[in-house]
Design a protein that fits this description.
14 helices; 413 residues; eight-stranded parallel β-barrel; 14 strands; binds D-mannose
Length: 413
């Protein structure tokens, strides 16, 4: 029998809680041992109590269908995400209160034995796509960000004041033609895809609410947003360090400003800046190959090589930029597309090896990794799935990544 190398990443899987159509029992069969989850029902900004955390942890870690209950073989390894309230990002009037609440949630999670928290600092919207059912050559469905469709939403559906000045004339014309070709239902669908909230984004808006919240950023440019991020880090990182929690900021997706809003976690130099703001092992990032990989100027393997010791969590997926439009992309199969997954995996395992030599253990050694997103394929196509989070599509992703990892790790031993 092949024995597992001791250079490996913890295989994790995102689970949206008891309502997720992909069940914990399915995840066990997919071979993951780490669960990535959140208390999605708690409104942004409120404290996560120990009681609520422990109740969810019990569901994940104990199989209660047998008596007496047995360990399920899964552990709640990462919280994705504890959302950062908008007032923290804009330095609004509730900032101090929301930071105190955030600290308390960190302390409570630490007390309950959680070791990693993923979060993001994207203004208003979390990850954004325009098409949730883009059919690729093999007939499966992928998520897609179409820059023309996005501009059509912003210019002609939302009609954001000043938006036309942020686009080239060519883009405005493309967007107009695109918009004119949409039926009423297609317009509603595009709007919903963008502002009704993708899984895990926690917030959804009507058009009027959306413009209102965009307006709260009128005086927040990239420099101010960075300052607000650093202020947040200065407050929460020492608390996380003491609580035994490793914070992992997630990069912007897509990794560039949208809707006139700044985005400050898009590039290697953004990451360097935020790491330098507070020097602590608790101040790390999520190496999300798919999000960073959308930009051609992000050197993924280089990021892992240079900043590897600050990687606290990993998302592996690939994207493919459209040949005719550098800002349009879809999500490719995990080992295809623009991401050099072999190079990224190899660099990650080299990092694990260094950590092993340095005597690290647990999550600090076997960094949790989840297959990020997956196509809707086979039986997924007949089921209701969370966009990007289908069972079989991710199973394929994890299986491919696991094989890649094993091949590389064996070669390194
Ligand atoms: C999308 C996810 C993001 C991510 C958050 C982290 O699939 O990668 O929603 O969870 O940005 O805070």
């Amino acid at each position: 029998m092949m024995t597992k190398s001791d250079i490996y990443l913890e295989q994790a899987w995102r689970w949206f809680g008891p309502k997720d159509p992909v069940k914990l029992a399915d995840i066990r069969q997919a071979g993951a041992t780490g669960i990535v989850s959140a208390l999605h029902e708690i409104p942004n900004g409120e404290v996560w109590t120990e009681e609520a955390i422990l109740a969810r942890k019990k569901i994940i870690e104990w199989n209660e269908t047998v008596t007496p209950a047995q360990p399920s073989g899964l552990r709640w390894s990462v919280v994705e995400s504890v959302p950062v309230h908008e007032h923290i990002k804009t330095a609004g009037k509730g900032r101090e209160k929301y930071i105190e609440n955030y600290k308390q949630s960190i302390i409570n999670l630490g007390r309950c034995g959680i070791d990693t928290i993923c979060y993001n600092f994207m203004p208003v919207l979390d990850w954004t796509r325009t098409d949730l059912n883009y059919v690729v050559a093999d007939g499966s469905e992928a998520l897609r960000f179409d820059a023309v469709a996005f501009a059509a939403f912003e210019l002609f559906i939302l009609q954001r004041p000043g938006a036309d000045k942020t686009y080239s004339l060519e883009r405005v014309q493309q967007a107009e033609a695109y918009y004119k070709g949409l039926t009423g239902d297609e317009k509603i669908k595009l709007q919903n895809n963008i502002i009704a909230g993708l899984p895990g984004s926690e917030e959804s808006f009507t058009l009027a609410e959306f413009q209102q919240i965009l307006d709260t950023y009128q005086t927040v440019d990239a420099a101010t947003l960075k300052e607000n991020l650093f202020y947040f880090l200065q407050q929460v990182i020492p608390v996380a360090e003491k609580a035994g929690i490793r914070m992992a900021i997630h990069p912007d997706d897509p990794p560039r400003p949208i809707l006139g809003l700044p985005r400050v976690v898009s590039t290697e130099s953004d990451i360097q800046d935020l790491l330098a703001a507070v020097d602590s092992p608790a101040n790390g990032f999520t190496m999300c190959a798919g999000s960073f990989g959308v930009r051609e100027d992000n050197d993924l393997v280089g990021i892992v090589k240079r900043l590897g010791r600050k990687i606290n969590f990993i998302h592996l997926r690939s994207t493919e930029r459209a040949k005719t439009d550098a800002e349009t992309f879809h999500e490719a199969n995990h080992l295809e597309g623009d991401v050099d997954m072999y190079g990224v995996m190899r660099a990650l395992l080299q990092e694990v090896k260094l950590r092993k030599e340095a005597g690290k253990t647990g999550a600090a050694l076997h960094i949790p990794m989840r297959p990020d997103h997956g196509h809707r394929m086979l039986d997924d196509l007949h089921k209701i799935t969370n966009p990007g989070y289908s069972g079989i599509g991710r199973l394929r992703g994890l299986a491919e990544l696991r094989g890649l990892e094993m091949g590389i790790a064996k070669g390194m031993a």
